[in-house]
Amino acid sequence: MSNPAGDCKGSPRTFGEPWPQFNDGLIYRDTVKASDSGLTLIDFYSSKHLNSAPLQGWLQRIRNGQIRIDGSVVTDPSTALRAGSELNYHRLPWKEPDAPYLLQVLFEDDDLIALNKPSGLQVLPGGLFQQRTVLTQLQGQASKHSSSLACQEPHPVPVHRLGRGTSGILLCAKTKVAKTRLSAYFADGTLVVRDNSDSSAVISTRKIGKIYRAMVSGILDEDEVVIKQPIGLVRYPGVANGLYVACPSGKPALSKVKVLERNVQGNYMLVEVEIQSGRPHQIRIHLSFIGHPLIGDPLYVAGGQPNCFDPEFENESFAHDGGYQRPGKPVPGDCGYLLHAHKVVLPHPTRSEVIKITAPLPSVLRTQQEVEEIELGAGDDAD
Fold first, then answer.
1. Domain segments of the chain: what residues?
2. Which of 102, 177, 189, 179 has its CA nearest to residue 137?
3. pLDDT, tens digit, for every residue of 329-357?
4. How far apart are CA 225 and CA 286, in angstroms?
5. Three-state DSSP class for residue 48
6. Contact assessment for residue 295 and residue 213, using Cβ atoms and an 8 Å cutoff
7. Under CATH, what is the fold of the domain 26-91?
8. By CB neighbour count within 10 A (0-12 exposed, 13-18 middle, 19+ buried), where does 189 fall?
9. What class is the 206-341 domain?
10. In what order do the strands lie in the sheet with 86-91?
11. Which helix H or strand E contains 142, and what residues bound it?
């Protein structure tokens, strides 16, 4: 049975623990393959894990005693490796960037939980954020409510991502069955986009409907526009696996944009965007591609490309732990833009019913009519 996720007065339930000053660091494990036997310790790390640190950074880590071979600390970079040896690199604890920690529950039952994620909170571990994530709070909450007999139960896990700067609805599965089916819903949406160029058919046949609210620069003459620009990867400093951009040879993506309000004097619009499962940063890329980037977006500019683009640039400076310094150029996790996952409609993963979930809008993303309706409602309550 579904839980309205509030108390008797209708107030939404929230949970979350404040972040510790420092995280626990990380342990990275490798097993030496036969093909790598005979490599020196520094050759192994500087070639296999160059994305983590430059050569000098790995030398620093080895000399700091942060690497063990078969359980023993080794500080000589020229140590020869043997096939089958276990390598452990200990990344030292660090203070992660500031991030909110409270999560609002929008919907919950035995199969899934829908959260209202605040802007500035990362969903899954990555980069500088290893502990200050939605996943950490979900795991902590589950541990509090698990009995010793139920400790083997899986923790809730997000089944899709929202950008760190994006707020709004995040769906999380509480069971393996729910995770499998919800993941399939998102995958099906992508397949529909790939196999069907008819935007109206795509919108009507997908299993999950997602509507976002955004504030963008410039003024569109049309009230509605469909964007079908493919999205692909390019090399980009500070992003190990590449940056998603508008790219003719990329994967299919489709966004339907509806203008809600225009502010001609301020040269900006409030828009609603409907997408399928979505490519990474799809809304940011698509709106910037048509010349209307999200207000405050530090990364994407007109054309669906990054603000500063030099694929040959490499940052060879490194931090106290040997890793690369944070790049001076914008990266996808940077915040500042105004984007909110407002509504989601989906089939329940285990029951024959459709679920409709809404995340309250930030005040800055409300239309004037919505503001007036809220003020009117507040006045009625006062009476």
1. 26-91, 206-341
2. 102
3. 888 999 999 999 999 999 999 999 999 99
4. 11
5. helix
6. no
7. 3.10.290
8. buried
9. alpha beta
10. 26-31, 86-91, 67-69, 72-73
11. helix 134-145
pLDDT at residue number 381: 61
- What residues contact 227, with CB distance under 8 A and at least 6 apart? 253, 254, 255, 256, 257, 286, 287, 289, 290
Give the CA-trace dihedral at 210, 215, 220, 221, to 10 degrees. 80
Q: What is the pLDDT of residues 238-272, one digit of tens each?
A: 787 899 999 999 999 999 999 999 999 999 999 99
Residue with tokens 């003719």: 248
Element housing 341 (H / E): strand 339-347
For residues 260-293, one letter each, b for 16 or more C-beta atoms within 10 angstroms of the residue's C-beta and e for the rest, the string is bebeeeeebbbbbbbbbbbbebbbbbbbbbbebb
Taking the CB of residue 137, how many other CB atoms lie within 10 A of it?
21
Q: Give the span between the Cα atoms of 364 and 187, in whole angstroms.
A: 32
Both structure tokens of 70: 């078969």
| Contact status, residue 154 vs residue 88, Cβ threshold 8 Å | no
Q: Which of 66, 111, 108, 112 is nearest to 89 (CA)?
A: 66
Q: Using CA atoms of 375, 379, 382, 383 in order, give the dihedral in degrees to the nearest 10.
A: -160
